[in-house]
Structures are given as C-alpha cells and as structure tokens.
C-alpha cells in the first residue's frame, strides 16, 4: 500500500485528540479528513470548538482549523469519508465498547486509545515493538464481527509502557514476579496544572483503575494466541501501586523483578541496548531509532530532562542494581501522552498500514 489513507479522529477535541492533531500534521501515510466529538461540539469548526482550550504551547495546525466537527454518532456519514479511525473519546466504558464495535461493523477499522476493549478476548492490545504478532488474531475477530475490513486494535494503558518494554527485552530470562510502582504525570488524567490545582505541592496516592490495568494488561501483552482468543501469560505475576505526582508529562516507574534464570547485569544492559521490533525494522515514521536508552547517571532518567527522548517515543531506564528481596531493581520513564497515548496508537496504525491490515 502506497496511497495516503483518510483518517477520522473520534474524541478530537480532548487532550489526546489534540495530540493526534499535532502528530498527524503532514504525516506520510495518513490525512485527517474527519474530526468528531460529542453532540454539543458538532456543527462548529474545530478552531471555534477548541480555541479556548487548546492544550499546547505550539499553535493549532492550520490544516485542522476549518474542519467542521461531526457528532461521533454520525457513524454512516463518517465511515463513508474515512479508511479508519482513531478513537480517543471520553465516555462511559460500556458506551465506548458499543461505538467502537459499531464503527468496526461499518467496515471501518478502529485504533483505540481507550481501555474499553483491552480485555476483549480477540482484541489485540499492542505495543508494536513487543507483540506485533498479536495482530494475527484480527482475522478471527473479523469472523466474530462478521466484517471483511473492520476490526478493533487497542493501545495499552499509558503507565505500563514505561516498564513493560524494559522487561520485554528480558523475557528470555523468564521473569517470575514484578513489583512496579508508577509515579504518573497529570496529563494522564487529561488535565494541566491550571485545571488541577490540587496537585501543586502535593502527591495523590490513588488513581482509580490504574493498579488493575498495571497488573493485568502486561499479562495480555506477553500472552499468546490460542484459537480465537489471546491467552494471558501465567509465567509472571505483577503487583503495583500507582501515584499521581506534580509533573506535566512523563510516567516514571520504580521496578523490582525476579527471574527463573537470573541474568548478569551486563546481560541486562545488552538486552536493553539491542532490543528492537518491527517498527525499527520497517523504519516506521514514528518509531524511535533506539527504543530503550539506559542512563549510567544515577540521577537519570527524569521526566523534565528525558521524556522527549526520540521525540517522546523512546523509553529510558536507569539505576539498575541487585536487590535484597528481588533479583534486580531499576527505574523506567516514558512520555505518557506520546508513547503512552496518541503516539503509541499512531505507531500501531503505521504498523497496521505497512502490514496490510488496512487493505
């Protein structure tokens, strides 16, 4: 496939939707043709809808300003204009499941930033460098949906993408138990400091739903296809705590891990350095050239210094050392709004494009 595809953005006016708008400007594979949001935004231009709540310091791209926002429930009309959609709506989970499946049944593939379908058996939850092979279940999902082209692929929770890539590079050593404590930026809640004054000079020790996602989603990412479903791995157990901290962007994770076959520190560092996947092999536009970067400096990685690594699509690791209870401990960092949200979904779409799933 060489032609550019027409894309729709569902939930285009929210924080993640706005991030999609910035990332898709002049994209080599995709052109945004439709922006959609709730009924209250429909009928106005994107500029008029978003101008007073544009989240970024960089100006709104010109290409998007005059597109008229559609109601996300105008499914027939939207599907006639696009080849696939990104979904980043902020709605009740049950309603999101219905609307994503409705688009798929209208023969329009859905690349979802939402959690609604992450535990649907035949919906792959993809970190492109880690489990691109899970896309193979799409043909089984199409059989269930009764579609020829339509399907749903989900991006995993933003917080797990700080530490799952690092541990994925070590799967050959058979990790058995993991403790991951994540320190999550406020943009993960869709807010800025202006919109979340309660976080200033403060730490909030609970983020609803995050710990379940952190403990369960990696098991699906590391799982395998069995018939018409993806089966979670049972080789690893994870426990986590998720904490909101006064950082704009960037989720940090403190990770403790034990292995069935304990590697040396040198073997771990080499695994971090050499780990790559299909996005690097295919040289996808959004793919980081170096997926995992290790810092020898004990004071790194830091969100403010390192979240933009590889244009926000790289993962950074530091402070690797042996532990008295687990085999090793280290810290990880990823940009939650880029690698963890819109950028991760865009990279997944680029992989789907190159692998022919949009044909």
UniProtKB/TrEMBL annotation:
The record, for SMART domains, names: Semialdhyde_dh
Q: Does the record carry NADP as a key word?
A: yes
Q: Which parts of the sequence belong to the Semialdehyde dehydrogenase NAD-binding domain? A: 6-138
The UniProt entry, under InterPro entries, shows: ASADH-related, Asp_semi-ald_DH_pep-lack, NAD(P)-bd_dom_sf, Semialdehyde_DH_NAD-bd, Semialdhyde_DH_dimer_dom
Q: Which GO terms describe its molecular function?
A: aspartate-semialdehyde dehydrogenase activity; NAD binding; NADP binding; protein dimerization activity
Keywords recorded for this protein, A-Z: NADP, Oxidoreductase
Sorted alphabetically, which Gene3D superfamilies does this protein's record hold? Dihydrodipicolinate Reductase, domain 2 (3.30.360.10), NAD(P)-binding Rossmann-like Domain (3.40.50.720)
According to its UniProt record, which residues of this chain constitute the active site? Answer: 158 (acyl-thioester intermediate), 251 (proton acceptor)
| GO BP terms, alphabetized | methionine biosynthetic process; threonine biosynthetic process
Domain of life (superkingdom): Bacteria
Similarity-based family: Belongs to the aspartate-semialdehyde dehydrogenase family.
- UniProt-recorded name of the protein: Aspartate-semialdehyde dehydrogenase
- Lineage of the organism: Bacteria, Bacillati, Bacillota, Clostridia, Eubacteriales
């Amino acid at each position: 496939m060489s032609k550019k595809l027409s894309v729709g953005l569902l939930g285009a006016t929210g924080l993640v939707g706005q991030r999609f708008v910035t990332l898709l400007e002049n994209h080599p594979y995709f052109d945004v043709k439709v922006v959609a949001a709730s009924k209250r935004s429909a009928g106005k231009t994107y500029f008029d809808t978003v101008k007073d709540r544009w989240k970024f310091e960089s100006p709104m791209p010109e290409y998007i300003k005059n597109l008229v926002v559609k109601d996300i429930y105008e499914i027939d009309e939207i599907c006639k204009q696009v080849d696939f959609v990104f979904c980043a709506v902020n709605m009740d989970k049950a309603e999101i499941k219905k609307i994503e499946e409705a688009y798929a049944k209208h023969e329009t593939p859905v690349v979802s930033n939402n959690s609604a379908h992450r535990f649907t058996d035949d919906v792959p939850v993809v970190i492109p460098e880690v489990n691109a092979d899970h896309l193979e279940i799409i043909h089984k999902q199409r059989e269930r949906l009764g579609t020829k082209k339509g399907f749903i692929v989900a991006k995993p929770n933003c917080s797990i993408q700080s530490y799952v890539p690092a541990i994925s590079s070590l799967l050959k050593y058979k990790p058995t138990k993991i403790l991951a404590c994540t320190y999550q930026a406020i943009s993960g809640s869709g807010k800025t400091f202006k919109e979340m004054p309660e976080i200033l000079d403060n730490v909030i020790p609970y983020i609803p739903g995050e710990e379940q996602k952190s403990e369960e989603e990696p098991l699906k990412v590391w799982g395998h296809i069995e018939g018409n479903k993806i089966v979670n791995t049972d080789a690893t157990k994870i426990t986590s705590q998720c904490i909101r901290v006064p950082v704009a962007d960037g989720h940090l994770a403190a990770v403790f891990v034990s292995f069935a076959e304990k590697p040396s520190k040198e073997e771990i560092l080499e695994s971090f350095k050499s780990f790559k996947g299909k996005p690097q092999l295919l040289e996808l536009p959004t793919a980081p050239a170096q997926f995992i970067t290790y810092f020898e400096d004990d004071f790194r990685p830091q969100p403010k210094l390192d979240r933009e690594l590889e244009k926000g699509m790289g993962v950074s690791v530091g402070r690797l050392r042996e532990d008295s209870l687990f085999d090793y401990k280290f810290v990880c960092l990823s940009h939650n709004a880029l690698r963890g949200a819109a950028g991760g979904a865009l990279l997944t779409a680029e992989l789907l494009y190159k692998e022919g799933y949009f044909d």
